[in-house]
Amino acid sequence: MMMVGKAEVPVIHENVQLQKNFTITRGSIEMLCLHKILESERPDIDEKRNDLLKLQGEFAVQLRELELVSQKYANLAHACSLVYLTLLHLDEVHFLYHYSVDFIIDIFDDVLKNSQLNG
């Protein structure tokens, strides 16, 4: 006897199920086999590789934290680029209104230095 239908899974159980979805892929099997081979044939390389993979994971976490802090300043960088693009079009009004990127960056550097001095 075969029953056909969609089983109702409570939301709580769906979340638990999603968190415990350990899918085995070709890549994960290859990595596991490589680990076993290195562990057997070259334990020194396996240990060094594992240490470096651990460091890579730690650096990835640190990089994510730095990127979160950097995002706080992204709006200011965007505004600065808009100011430059606006000034870039002023030469359409008069040819003497021509500003280089270096000029705008120098002004931006001065603003940043003065804001640090003023606190």
Automatic annotation (TrEMBL):
GO CC term (a single one): cytoplasmic dynein complex
Q: List, alphabetically, the Gene3D superfamilies matched.
A: 1.10.8.1220
InterPro entries xref list:
AAA_9, DHC
Tell me a Gene Ontology molecular-function term this record carries: minus-end-directed microtubule motor activity
Q: Which domain of life is it from?
A: Eukaryota
Query: Boundaries of each Dynein heavy chain ATP-binding dynein motor region domain copy?
Result: 21-67
* A Gene Ontology BP annotation from the UniProt entry: microtubule-based movement
PANTHER family registered for this protein in UniProt:
CYTOPLASMIC DYNEIN 1 HEAVY CHAIN 1, DYNEIN HEAVY CHAIN FAMILY PROTEIN
Identify this protein by name. Dynein heavy chain ATP-binding dynein motor region domain-containing protein
